[in-house]
Structures are given as C-alpha cells and as structure tokens.
Amino acid sequence: MNTNREHLCDVLVIGSGAAGLSLALRVAERAKVIVLSKGPLSEGATYYAQGGIAAVFDEADSIESHVNDTNIAGAGLCEQDTVQFIAENAKECVQWLIDGGVPFDQVETAKDEAPRYHLTREGGHSHRRILHAADATGMAMQTTLQDNVLSHPNIEIFERYNALDLITEDKVGGRKDKVVGAYIWNRNQEHVETVRAKFVVLATGGASKVYQYTSNPDVSSGDGIAMAWRSGCRVANLEFNQFHPTCLFHPDARNFLLTEALRGEGLT
C-alpha cells in the first residue's frame, strides 16, 4: 500500500467521541497522542446523545441498587464484574467530567452549600440518578471534551481521516499479534498515510449504520470492530446494537431520536 506521509506518536486513538477524547486527555500528561476523527470532530454519536449519564449521587440511592437495576435491565446477560466495576466508578468518572467543565444542570442551593445536581430518571432505573445538561447532554460533553483536547499541547487532532487497517508487526518481520500503527486515509488530500504508535486504541463506537433504519449518525459503521477482527482480535455479542425505540418519522427528512427522558418520565 503506497503512503505519502508517516506520523509518529505514543498513543493513536481512533475515534473522537466521549470515549476517545476522555482517554486522550487521561494519557496526554505522559504521552504524545494523535486522535483520528472520521469526519468533523463533533460528528459522532456522543454529540447527538440527549438524556444524560447515570451515577449514584443521591444519598438515598446506592451502588447495590444501581447494580441490581442494571442486571434486571440486562435480562441476565450482564457480566457481573463489569456491572459492579462501572457502578462503583461511575461517580468518580462523572466528577472528572464536572471538573473538566461539563455543565450538568444543578438545583438551587444556599451560597455556602456544595453544588447539587438535578437528577432525573430514565428507563430501568429505580432511583433518580441521571445527571444531564438540559436535554443536550451529549453536546455539552462533546463540546467540553473537544475544547480541553484542542488546548492540550500533547494531543494532535486529525479531522476527516478514515482508519483503513491496523498495522501488525508481522508486516515488518515481527509478531502477528502486536499492533504498531495504522494505515489512514486523508480525505482532504485523498491519499493514504501511516501512523506509527506504541499503543493503538479503537474507540470507534458501534455499527448501527449498517442497518437501513437507525437514529445513529452515518459514521457509526463498525470500522473499528472490523479492523480488530482482521488483526486477530476476538469479537463477541455483535447482535447487540442499540436502537432507540422513540424516533420521529417524516417522509421528507431523516429519522431522528426523541429523548429517552420522555420514557423515563412516563410520557411515552
């Protein structure tokens, strides 16, 4: 495969949603990071997410209750260790977003009181544990994370670049199971380039756009899953694609999501 340019970094993050940008910020204090974005930086599922993010902030709530609600909603298919880990660490992760500037809605308190966040309830939750920024939580998270990433000296953003395939070491005489970079397609200049990296992270989101009808953005086409599989990774649960049950249909417009908060508050 002919290439026109080679880039070097410590960590290549393929994907520019909440997962990719959060990871980039976490590791950038001790590594040089390149973040690859298939389209404009904000054109991903995170930006369009509406309702909110779940964590135990209410004193009347508990980790045990969050775990139990998750297992019930998962119909017995959840991995217990994963559920426990996420529920236990959710508050710390949301606090990290708050410290980074994400403007979650607050309730009025006295001037000398600590901030308290407005919590709503969504489907499957027995308590109000959803933090939100109005009804555009994804936009608030994506915009804040973008601002933090763009101002970080150790992070470089490549917009309008498609990841084509991972480069494994066996292509240069090494081990087949060691990833050393990626081939990328520069959509602006229409040529292939390479990135050499000590670590490559796939944060490309889901594959719902392979279906004819979905509220997911066009970029959710499963590229990362396919690249991982071609490189020898084990993939599982490919039938688990998220489809929001509440969309607005118009014959002359694209389908789009109606917020999950409608169901959580019993309005649908």
TrEMBL record:
Requisite cofactors: FAD
UniProt keywords, alphabetically: FAD, Flavoprotein, Oxidoreductase, Pyridine nucleotide biosynthesis
The EC code for this enzyme is: 1.4.3.16
**Isomerase as a keyword?**
no
Q: Does the keyword Repeat apply?
A: no
FAD-dependent oxidoreductase 2 FAD-binding domain span: 10-266
Quick one: which pathway? Cofactor biosynthesis; NAD(+) biosynthesis; iminoaspartate from L-aspartate (oxidase route): step 1/1
This entry's Gene Ontology molecular function terms read: L-aspartate oxidase activity
Q: Which reaction does it catalyse?
A: L-aspartate + O2 = iminosuccinate + H2O2
Among InterPro entries, the record links this protein to:
FAD-dep_OxRdtase_2_FAD-bd, FAD/NAD-bd_sf, NadB, Succ_DH/fumarate_Rdtase_cat_sf
Q: Name one Pfam family in it.
A: FAD_binding_2
Family according to the record: Belongs to the FAD-dependent oxidoreductase 2 family. NadB subfamily.
Quote the protein name from its UniProt record: L-aspartate oxidase
